[in-house]
Design goal:
With about 700 residues, the chain is α+β, with helices and mostly antiparallel strands. It has 27 helices and 22 strands. Among the domains are: about 1-105 and about 125-165, Immunoglobulin-like (Sandwich); about 305-445, Orthogonal Bundle (Neutral Protease, domain 2). About 45% of the residues lie in helices and about 20% in strands. Bound molecules: zinc ion.
């Protein structure tokens, strides 16, 4: 209740300020200390007072301020620890505000690795975390400012920020990077990232430089990680019909990123899980995220939803335009089946989810997928030509400003008789999924028609449909239809379904074969040889599933399976190596000396690795009941990690373990050797 009241109150204050003051530019000169994790900077704001006001406010969390000057003269200010308030009888006109600040950010800026181990990365995340934790700025998305950052750091590193890199100066061991923007944006899109990055630059058809960064050590993965990037860019620029709004577009993967990707203006950051080789690309391609974050450069960055209620104007649009970009690469069948699958998810969710799209509290599924579906409905109903006209006009009219759903509807109404009110009620204001209209649109695609035919047979006795299903499996129909066949026959007897399973394996489609690998958990001896062929699939995920399932099913063959897979590595999070170590440890007598395997597995729990690898390793150690001091210490360290999934994993696991009184005592004896933050977290868990 208090929170709600507070939010209402702050909205009122913000609304008042933006009526009185318009911030035009911000120039920051920022130095970051990677050991103390302190940010020091000088900021210069240019702003226009529209109507007289006695206080202006800039969001700034837990900062200290020095040399605060208004138009070159010292000015009184209040530091509320949440904002800096400048107290002055402001009258209409232009002003210049400068000050120095210092802060140790509590969130929104993250430090990974270290210079000593040559793997330091520093990166920021504004959306959901607030840029005002590291740079004085505006939590209100409606205050758009032209941001320019000068960043000073060790010259052996690369520093990325928004906009064009105008100049670089070496100053002894340090270097100054000067990044400049020309157009305004909301503060949550401000970014910086520091690391041992190397770029490859491509150019879009329209001439925009596309800077593709990777860490130096991953340079061999450039082509596979960034596959189709230029094609996506050229496609979206043409499809959207409004030129890419910024001067440059750069992308970089960062360690232990909180999300899949973040569309900081002209400088997207994404998760290292998408840094892949040609095999990894099959299961963890960056392509969809790549297109999604790029689409946000228009839908989100050029035009920004004025409140959370209209969040679908960002996420629904980015999701839909990413799907269009994928359609351009993978074809119509891919597009329609993706929509079919999200329709299934939305239908399922609508049984319990009562929060519709136009609500700031809607789920991600609703904002992203229901939003995308709603836009698909608009696209199909208006027709491609009118839809493109609407999108273009909508962007032109609102460029570099904030928008709400009515702004979009206004453009629709100008080109067609489309009933926006009815549409809004059906797609944006209710959680019920409009299956009737959705199916009508989906069934325009032939392979969806075939899918529906297969699904109609769900309750038909197997012998009556056997021939038909075999025919489908042997046809060249889209593989998703064949997947539906596999899902449908799961409960049939082995003698009935084995022929269809064999046909699936013979399809040579890695996705279909992967579904089979997942579906079959108990393998009869007469299917063993066929199932073993999955071990050799060009998919790290399929290999992991096949190895584990075979090891579980055939104890007599374990040695052979482990021999085949002993040099496997897998994705960058070493999924195959980790599972191999675990299975080798769980196979008595496979190696004479288990110590080395154990040591290697434990080494992957170290904080020098990313959370995904550490968690994989910890899970396998727990599976093997290896609970050395080092393992327990790694678990405690996990509870202090910035990625909530990993810290939750650490807490949940410790909670389970300390139910055992012996392990509880071991945790207690570890306490004096822990870092302060670790000790606090552990103490809290022991006290529960
Ligand atoms: Zn998004």
């Amino acid at each position: 209740m208090k929170k709600v009241l507070f939010l209402l109150f702050s909205t009122v204050v913000i609304a008042q300020q933006s009526n009185h003051v318009d911030f035009i530019t911000a120039l920051g000169k920022v130095t970051i200390n990677d050991t103390s994790k302190i940010v020091e900077g000088t900021v210069e704001f240019e702003f226009k007072v529209l109507n007289s006001i006695d206080t202006i406010k800039i969001d700034a969390q837990n900062m200290e301020f020095f040399n605060v000057k208004l138009n070159d003269k010292p000015v009184p200010f209040i530091n509320s620890r949440k904002e800096i308030q400048i107290v002055f009888p402001f009258v209409k006109g232009n002003n210049n505000l400068t000050f120095d600040y210092q802060v140790k950010p509590k969130q929104a800026m993250y430090f990974l690795g270290s210079k000593a181990t040559n793997d330091l990365q520093i990166w920021t995340q504004g959306q959901g975390k607030y840029t005002s934790n590291w740079f004085p700025s505006f939590d209100d998305v409606n205050e758009k400012v032209v941001f320019n950052l000068d960043i000073i750091f060790d010259k052996k590193y690369e520093v990325l920020s928004n906009g064009v890199l105008k100049k670089e100066f070496n100053q002894g061991e340090t270097k100054k990077w000067e990044y400049r923007m020309e157009k305004p944006m909301s503060s949550y899109l401000l970014m910086l990232a520091i690391g041992k990055f190397k770029k490859q630059t491509q150019r879009s058809k329209s001439g925009v430089p596309l800077e593709l960064y990777l860490e130096e050590k991953d340079s061999s993965l450039h082509t596979t990680t960034y596959k189709h990037t230029q094609k996506i860019f050229d496609f979206l620029e043409k499809e959207i019909g409004f030129p890419y709004p910024w001067r440059v577009y750069r992308q970089a993967p960062v360690k232990d990123f909180l999300y899949a990707g973040m569309e900081n203006t002209s400088a997207t950051l994404f998760n290292t899980r998408y840094v892949v080789d040609a095999i990894g690309f099959k299961d963890r391609s960056y392509l969809n995220v790549n297109a999604h974050e790029l689409a946000h450069q228009w839908f989100g960055n050029l035009i920004t939803a004025e409140t959370g209620t209209h969040h679908w104007l960002q996420e629904g649009f980015a999701t839909y335009f990413a799907l269009l970009a994928e359609r351009n690469i993978y074809g119509d069948d891919y597009f329609y089946h993706a929509l079919y699958e999200t329709a299934q998810q939305l239908k399922f969710a609508s049984r319990t989810d009562s929060i519709p799209v136009l609500n700031p509290k809607a789920s991600s599924l609703t904002f992203y997928q229901k939003g995308a579906w709603a836009l698909f409905v608009v696209h199909e109903t208006l027709g491609d030509k009118n839809f493109k006209k609407v999108i273009k006009n909508y962007l032109q009219k609102n460029a570099f400003q904030n928008v709400n759903t009515q702004d979009f509807f206004d453009e629709i109404t100008k080109v067609s008789k489309f009933n926006t009110e009815k549409f809004s009620k059906l797609w944006l204001e209710t959680t019920a999924f409009n299956t009737l209209e959705a199916n009508e649109l989906l069934l325009k695609n032939k392979s969806i028609q075939e899918l529906f035919e297969v699904n109609k047979l769900k309750n038909t006795p197997f012998q009556e449909k056997r021939q038909y299903l075999e025919k489908v499996m042997q046809s060249d129909v889209y593989f998703k239809v064949k997947e539906a066949v596999l899902s449908q026959i799961q409960k049939e007897s082995w003698s009935d379904k084995i022929k269809l399973y064999e046909l699936a394996l013979n399809s040579n489609n890695t996705s279909l074969r992967q579904l089979l690998a997942v579906t079959v958990s108990n393998i009869p001896e007469n299917f063993r040889l066929q199932y073993e062929t999955l071990l050799l699939d060009a998919s790290y995920e399929t290999q992991e599933i096949a190895l584990t399932t075979l090891w579980n099913n055939f104890p007599n063959h374990r040695t052979r399976y482990l021999d085949v897979s002993k040099n496997w590595i897998g994705f960058k999070d070493l999924n195959l190596r980790i599972v191999w170590l675990s299975l080798a440890l769980a196979t008595p007598n496979y190696v004479s000396d288990q110590d080395n395997l154990q040591k290697e597995l434990i080494s992957y729990t170290s904080p020098i690795y990313e959370a995904s690898l550490r968690q994989n390793a910890l899970e396998q150690l727990l599976f093997n009941q290896i609970l050395s001091d080092e393992v327990l210490r790694s678990l405690v360290n996990a509870t202090t990690h910035h990625a909530w999934q990993f810290s939750k994993f650490g807490r949940d696991t410790i909670r389970k373990l300390i139910k055992n009184s012996e392990i509880r005592i071991v945790f207690q004896t570890l306490q004096p050797t822990l870092l302060e933050q670790e000790r606090l977290q552990l103490q809290r868990l022991l006290n529960e």
